[in-house]
From TrEMBL:
GO biological process: L-amino acid transport
Protein name: Amino acid/amide ABC transporter ATP-binding protein 2, HAAT family
Family the entry assigns: Belongs to the ABC transporter superfamily.
CDD domains, per the entry: ABC_TM1139_LivF_branched (cd03224)
Gene Ontology molecular function terms on file: ATP binding; ATP hydrolysis activity; branched-chain amino acid transmembrane transporter activity
InterPro entries documented for this protein: AAA+_ATPase, ABC_branched_ATPase_LivF/BraG, ABC_transporter-like_ATP-bd, ABC_transporter-like_CS, BCAA_Transport_ATP-bd_LivF, P-loop_NTPase
ABC transporter domain boundaries: 2-232
Alphabetical list of SUPFAM superfamilies matching this protein: P-loop containing nucleoside triphosphate hydrolases (SSF52540)
Keywords from the named record: Amino-acid transport, ATP-binding, Nucleotide-binding, Transport
Lineage: Bacteria, Bacillati, Bacillota, Clostridia, Eubacteriales
Length: 233
């Protein structure tokens, strides 16, 4: 569904992504893990058109989308749940969800019901200002808002960041449920243990390169991964 070919991205003179190639098959959950600064967010931001790659290509459903605008890319069916959630604090839950569907003209009732089924908590709180939700609820809202664009591929940047373990488990259960319902998922995580358990396939990034790849189970059993990323899990 998604293919990156030898992607290079620089900020000023500094190369953050140094030739990355990988594929995300339709219907899968793929995860990128790696230390802070490895280039994971930069990869996602270049897929969705927020940064322009220096070279290489991004191909989505057999069409090259490298360098297209974010609006065009969202319209093709890719959406990003950014790190730190970034909901609109002064708008209600419902207003936030509607913003996720800003490109769509059809009746949203069915999709709102879909989101409320996935996240009953958001239904209970649809009139609450988003800024007053708990961290976990804001993460649910960020995911719900992204789903309102009806993506074929949803990319999530650190969905577990700053959340209590029980809430994190809930978020991962939802990620798996969304995937079961047919949405392909590309996930970046610091919590390598949970991400690799959920993922069909994983890639380990270090200073802009992919240094290891394998199925989630293979990487979980890999000694290098255990030593570097699973120590505290
Ligand atoms: P984290 O887990 O901390 O978010 P990451 O693996 O997602 O890390 P990136 O955020 O992609 O890593 O950053 C990769 C490198 O690019 C880092 O060295 C970072 O300082 C640099 N970088 C990221 N954004 C910018 C920017 N807007 N301008 C300059 N340098 C940047």
């Amino acid at each position: 569904m998604l293919k990156l070919n030898d992607l290079h991205v620089s900020y000023g003179g500094i190369e953050a992504v140094k030739g990355i190639s990988f594929a995300v098959p339709e219907g899968s959950i793929v995860t990128l893990i790696g230390a802070n600064g490895a280039g994971k967010s930069t990869v996602l931001r270049s897929i969705v058109g927020l940064v322009k790659p220096k070279s290489g290509s991004v191909v989505f459903q057999d069409e090259e989308i490298t360098g297209k605008s974010s609006d065009e890319i969202v319209a093709k069916g890719i959406t990003l749940v950014p790190e730190g959630r970034r909901v609109f604090s002064n708008l209600s839950v419902l207003e936030n969800l509607k913003i996720g569907a800003y490109m769509r003209k059809e009746d949203l009732t069915k999709d709102l019901n879909w989101i409320y089924d996935l996240f009953p908590r958001l239904k209970e709180r649809s009139w609450q200002m988003a800024g007053t939700l708990s961290g976990g609820e804001q993460q649910m809202l960020a995911v719900g808002r992204a789903l309102m664009s009806k993506p074929k591929l949803i990319m999530m940047d650190e969905p577990s960041l700053g959340l209590a373990p029980l809430i994190v488990q809930g978020i991962f259960d939802i990620i798996k449920e969304i995937n079961k319902q047919g949405v392909t998922i590309l996930l970046i995580e610091q919590n390598a243990n949970l991400a690799l358990k959920a993922a069909d396939y994983g890639y380990v990034l270090e200073t802009g390169h992919i240094i290891l790849s394998g199925t989630g189970a293979e990487l979980l059993a890999n000694e290098e991964v255990k030593a570097a990323y699973l120590g505290k899990s």
